[in-house]
Amino acid sequence: MLGIALMLLVYFLFSRIDVGVKWLVINRILKLQITFMHYLGYFVICSYAFKFSG
What we know:
Layout (H helix, E strand, L loop, with lengths): L1 H25 L4 H21 L3
Helix pairs in contact: 1-2
């Protein structure tokens, strides 16, 4: 049951990153900054997941 909950959390967090990127594009932020923040978000989530995976 914990695995299902974690997967749902990850899907939610990844979708929030994509929504954030679309919001930044609408507000005309530089594409280089958007790309950096997009991949930084993925890196943080994946690092946290690998930290507790053993």
